[in-house]
């Protein structure tokens, strides 16, 4: 094997946002210094924002460099065959002190044609929710380009969009084309395709510190939007010490593991695994070494790690391809 294999953690890539706050520090213990930190990119190979390993022998190396040297060991044989040396997913935590903009993401075909990028199918797991926090997901009823534009121009877009209360433990799966916005008062774990392509439709007429409104992408969004009503809220089982499927789609599979004891994991080398600790703590034992994790930690398990044990009292999101 060309690379030493062990569970990998990465330096968080912190992003200030006009809608951000301080909960990534107070809730998830991220090293933020600003009062408007909206995002912690946990695992990324987006150009200009490539994750750097924070632990062990490989500390200081970038994820892209590691994949370049050992694609099968890190990504897995199936993932490498499908995506080459690209890491296909992006993992984040978000803190919405204010509403995010109403936005939409293009599908693979549009994103490739316009931006030479993947599309952006994504899911949210709500980690913390203030009272009455809500999200916007899709249209209340089947709509049309004409109705959408009429409401956009009349500043009544919000009136035709679905407004859903959100609480801790809720999961929302957003296929490309779904108009959406995370609402104020939510801390969310986000799993998505590797893409930073967002079309902003409406930003509540906010201005930044310089007195400017943020750019909108009205024309680009028209052909990207799914104007039909969609069902985004995912129900899932919570059987202890088991991988309970939440989302299974062409881009990723996410399981929910309520951990209350031990789970032995056996892998076949086809795909990497990512764990996001969303509550409590857990430890992972691999080759007689124990690695400890707490709420807000994200860890990449290289595909070549074939047998290990999870143990603890907590809740974990388990993501594979």
UniProtKB/TrEMBL annotation:
Residues 246-319 form the Mannose-6-phosphate isomerase cupin domain. Binds 1 zinc ion per subunit. Gene3D superfamilies: Jelly Rolls. Residues 11-117 form the Phosphomannose isomerase type I catalytic domain. This is Phosphohexomutase. The lineage of its organism: Bacteria, Pseudomonadati, Bacteroidota, Flavobacteriia, Flavobacteriales. GO terms for molecular function: mannose-6-phosphate isomerase activity; zinc ion binding. Keywords: Isomerase, Metal-binding, Zinc. GO terms for biological process: carbohydrate metabolic process. The active site is at residue 200. Its cofactor is Zn(2+). The keyword Zinc applies. Zn(2+) binds at residues 105, 122, 180.
């Amino acid at each position: 094997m060309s690379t030493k294999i062990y569970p990998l953690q990465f330096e968080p890539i912190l992003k200030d946002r006009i809608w951000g706050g301080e909960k990534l520090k107070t809730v998830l213990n991220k090293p933020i210094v600003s009062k408007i930190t909206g995002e912690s990119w946990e695992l990324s190979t987006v150009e200009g924002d490539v994750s750097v390993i924070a632990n062990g022998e490989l500390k200081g190396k970038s994820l892209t460099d590691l994949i370049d040297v050992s694609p099968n060991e890190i990504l897995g044989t199936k993932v490498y065959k499908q995506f080459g040396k690209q890491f296909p997913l992006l993992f984040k935590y978000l803190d919405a002190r204010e509403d995010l903009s109403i936005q939409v993401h293009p599908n693979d075909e549009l994103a490739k044609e316009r931006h030479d990028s993947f599309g952006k199918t994504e899911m949210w797991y709500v980690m913390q929710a203030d009272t009455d926090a809500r999200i916007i997901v899709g249209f209340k009823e089947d709509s049309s380009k004409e109705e959408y534009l009429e409401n956009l121009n009349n500043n009544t877009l919000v009136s035709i969009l679905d407004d859903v209360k959100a609480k801790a433990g809720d999961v929302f799966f957003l296929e490309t084309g779904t108009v959406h916005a995370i609402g104020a008062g939510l801390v969310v774990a986000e799993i998505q395709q590797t893409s930073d392509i967002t079309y902003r439709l409406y930003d509540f007429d906010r201005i930044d510190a310089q007195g400017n409104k943020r750019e909108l992408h009205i024309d680009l969004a028209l052909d990207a939007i799914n104007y039909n009503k969609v069902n985004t809220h995912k129900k899932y089982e919570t059987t202890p010490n088991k991988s309970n499927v939440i989302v299974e789609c062409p881009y990723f599979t996410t399981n929910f593991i309520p951990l209350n004891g031990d789970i032995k994991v056996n892998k076949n080398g086809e795909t990497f695994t990512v764990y996001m600790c969303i509550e409590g703590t857990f430890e992972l034992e691999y080759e007689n070494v124990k690695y400890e994790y707490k709420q807000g930690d994200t860890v990449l398990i290289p595909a070549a790690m074939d047998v290990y044990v999870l143990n603890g009292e907590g809740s974990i999101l388990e993501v594979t391809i």
